[in-house]
Model the fold of this input.
Amino acid sequence: MSSKLKVGIIGLGSMGSTHLDIYSKINEVEVTAIADSIQSRLDGSSKAEGNISGQAEGGVVGLSSTKYLDGMELINNADIDIVDICVGTDLHFIFVEAALAKGKHVLVEKPLARNYEEAKKIIQLAKNSSFHVMSAMCLRYWPAWVFLKEAIQTNAYGKCLSLNCKRQTSFPGGAFYSDNNQCGGALLDLHVHDTDFINYCLGLPDAVFSQGYKGPSGGFDHVVTNYIYNKSDSSPIVSSEGSWTMQEGYGFNMSYTANFENGTLSYLLDEDETLKLFKSGQESESIKLKEGMGYEFEIRAFVDEILAGNSTNIDLLRQAAETIAIVEAEKTSIEACSVVSIKV
Ligand SMILES: NC(=O)c1ccc[n+]([C@@H]2O[C@H](COP(=O)([O-])OP(=O)(O)OC[C@H]3O[C@@H](n4cnc5c(N)ncnc54)[C@H](O)[C@@H]3O)[C@@H](O)[C@H]2O)c1
Done:
């Protein structure tokens, strides 16, 4: 009998395919069940694509996993230890609830849930369960952001004075992204990465001021936010911009600029990846980052937690939930054109 952890993946879109690739490189696990309600994704005759090079490269062809057309069937019938939930955001809560009820460990794609109410229920379920639940907030594991968090927290270049994060792409298309009720627009689906990183790195902001406009999802698909920390003498000035409304062909990029008392860090991932450090009076320095995408380090961390027998890190999960409360405040702020306090 195999001593590997058995994984079932629900949803074989761009993220499910990416997770599949990553599990295939981890010795201690094997994907023994997969589910997708689209037959061609299940049998490998069609395949979703990712927006970052290196994502969703493998496939299901040749995989001996048991296949299900409904994720609930996989949870109820498959002999697995882990359920990896990669369906659309509006379905996250019901699948997390069902998987925990069946005694499975759970990795759930970001954002944790479609709204803060559901996210709070997940926290409660996780607190009452001995099984491990993790929200796949991949930026927390992305080498350039790990570097940034450490630089801020250790004052490596002095105090951080300002941080600006940006993430822009053309509209991803497809049924899920075209329905604001399912995906929450770029505001919840894309920009949430930066909001979560800011919350994770600097703590919960006191308030936000956001402006934005609607796009092809029917929801807010372009947003610019200032995150307000009342103790402004100890917090940097923080802002971010996220968009799905770039013209076709624009591609995808994500970036940050962090200005410190004694240095400026500038990161950009588009076709290449560069992190530069600028210091007055010196040549700029290119910083070598650990190779790999955040998804790989995130899934490795999740598997390691389970192998170590660790229970859910409720603080990290709560932070992922509170990120959704911040995003909801951003939406209110856009609609009201005013500063909105964060209430959790
Ligand atoms: N971490 C990241 O950077 C990142 C990037 C993209 C997407 N995501 C998140 O991942 C999730 C999925 O996004 P995607 O781009 O892969 O979406 P997608 O629409 O391409 O894929 C979702 C898949 O789930 C399947 N599905 C839907 N209902 C099902 C059910 N009941 N049973 C089985 N299969 C079912 C669909 O057929 C589809 O193939 C979303 O929550 C999204 O926000 C995260």
In short: DSSP finds eleven helices and 15 strands in the chain. The pocket of nicotinamide-adenine-dinucleotide is lined by residues 10-16, 35-38, 41, 48, 70-71, 86-89, 91, 109-110, 136, 138, 174, 176, 189 (CB under 6 Å).
